[in-house]
Every structure is written in structure tokens, then in C-alpha cells.
Amino acid sequence: MRALFSLVSLVIVVAIIMMVAKKQLQAVAPAVVPPASPGAPAPTVPEQSRAAQQKVLQDVNRALEQGASRAPD
Q: How many CA atoms lie within 13 A of 58 on its CB side?
């Protein structure tokens, strides 16, 4: 009887761990971005990389400007 409870407990714990792992993997999965228009060619990896770098650069600059505006003179 004790072994049965241990086995059932183990199955429940494994099921909970699998559910949490599934949620975590879905959270970090890359988002699929469809092309802008059907006739336009899909962007290449270097173009996507440059676009991501530009976005990060703009976000950092915006954050620095906000911090500078909050700081007392």
C-alpha cells in the first residue's frame, strides 16, 4: 500500500514538472513574424539581425534620455 502511494505521488510530481516545463518552453519560443506583404521577399537573417540591433539601440537611447531628463541638474 505504501509503495502504491509512493508511485502515485511520483507520477503526480512528474506531471506537475512536465506542465511547468511546457509553459516555460512556450514562453521562450521564438515568435514567428509573417512577411510584410505576400509579394515582398522574406528578410534574410543578416537583415533581421540589423533590424534587431537597431531596435535595441533605439530602446537604449530612449532609456538613457529618460534617465538624463529625470536626473537633477
A: 6
